[in-house]
Amino acid sequence: MSALLPPQPWLSVVMPVRNAGPYLDAAVASIVNQTFTEFEFVIVDDASTDGTWPALEAWAARDPRIVIVRNPTRLGMVGNANAAVRCSRGVLVARMDGDDVSAPERLGRQVDVLQSRPEVAVVGSLFIGIDGAGRAVRPRDRWRLLQHSPFHPFPHGSAMFRRDAFEAVGGYRDVDDLPEDADLFRRLAQHGTVVTLPDALYAYRYHAGNATTALGNGASVSRPRVRTDRMASQAVRLWAGGAPTLPDQPSGQAAQMRWTVRRLVYATWGRTHPPSLRTALRAWIMWRDAVASLAVRSADVVPWRGAPLPRVPAGQVVGAEPGEQRDDGGGGEHDTGHERDGQRRHPGRDHGHCRAGERRGPGPTEEAGHARV
Questions:
Q1: Cα–Cα distance between 339 and 108 in angstroms, integer?
Q2: Is the pLDDT of residue 313 over 70?
Q3: Could you give the residue range(s) of every CATH 3.90.550.10 domain in the chain?
Q4: What single DSSP character describes residue 259?
Q5: Superfamily designation of domain 11-207+298-372
Q6: Is the distance from CB of 86 to CB of 353 less than 8 angstroms?
Q7: Among 141, 154, 96, 132, CA closest to 210
Q8: Which tens digits make up the pLDDT trace of 21-64?
């Protein structure tokens, strides 16, 4: 028996979570209170052991846009991220993290970009950093937008992307040399433009729980991945209010030696007096943001400098066969090409994971490979 789904939503917000704890309510509230209101909000709980699931049940009972899914066994970060997208149905997909906060206008501004610019595959936004108590600790940094960097200048949770592009590149992967978001956005950049909104529409939370995420999973990863994860972990510790640890002993070529020495100076300063280092870094970031703002305006949409070059010609549908053109319908219902009895089937989407887990929310309830409507 095939499941007949409600009309495909234009936008899905997906939030994979595990043991989201004290930050979950703020994250969910920041999405349900968006000025853009037409979306489904799919939250997939990766077998949490704290009070995450009861909290999600309470939210789903209050807002019909929320769909919650519970994994019976843990899938891990990459598996759960893919599961969240699979369980959603939107033409556009916005990512959200369970310990961060989105500004009220975030979704609306990102939808505007993707509706008006068919060549864009991903749009993120700049961010401010907040601590565990929600206090602003790291200012906006437009300087990042002007740098030629192999790393995207926006947080993972601030991204919105086209579903067809995500499917064309195969979704998230667990690779040795890059975090899963960096790997995804590099591949998406070969199917369309990756851009950043220069306003801080996202608040990234620095707290003790995410300070150890990068290196605390026991995975065997390559040396470049370990180095990247360790640097990120030190930054999280500092902005969360702690002290960074000392880096590894200098080794390798001269450029690497110079970079290691810089890190050693900052780490030593941070170990000796973390508040003064945070104050100095805030002042430096605010100064370079002000300088960059002379070249970057709030109304701009800034391409990612240093991104891989797109392989798809401008104007062609991302993830489509050559010659197929995009018709976004001006923000209306997306024509999937599969209609019956006035309802639309969702093509090419594997909802088997949602059937395997516990799913609650509006629309049909899927269980054990069958649909109950």
A1: 28
A2: no
A3: 11-207+298-372
A4: H
A5: Spore Coat Polysaccharide Biosynthesis Protein SpsA; Chain A (3.90.550.10)
A6: yes
A7: 132
A8: 899 999 999 999 999 999 999 999 999 999 999 999 999 999 99
Q: Which residue matches tokens 């080794």?
A: 251
The whole-model pTM stands at 0.78
Predicted confidence band at 314 (pLDDT cuts at 50, 70, 90)?
very low
Given a contact cutoff of 8 angstroms between Cβ atoms, the answer to whether 197 and 108 are in contact is no
**The tokens of 213 are what?**
């995420």
Do you know the residue count of the chain?
A: 373
Cβ neighbours for 214, distance < 8 A, ≥ 6 positions apart: 179, 229, 230, 232, 233
**What are 225's two structure tokens?**
């991945």
**DSSP state, residue 71:** -
| 224-253 core/surface letters (b: 16 or more CB in 10 A; e: else) | ebbbbbbebbbbbbbbbbbbbeebeeeeee
Cβ neighbors of 186 (< 8 A, separation 6 or more) are 150, 178, 307, 308
C-alpha–C-alpha distance, residues 7 and 24, integer Å: 29
Task: Compute CA 248 distance to the chain's CA centroid, rounded to the nearest angstrom.
Answer: 30
**Which residues are paired to 200 by β-bridges?**
126
Q: Which two tokens stand for residue 1?
A: 């028996």
- The number of beta carbons lying within 10 Å of the beta carbon of residue 1 is 8
In contact, 101 and 25? CB cutoff 8 Å:
no
Residues with Cβ < 8 Å from 207, sequence gap 6 or more? 23, 99, 131, 132, 236, 240
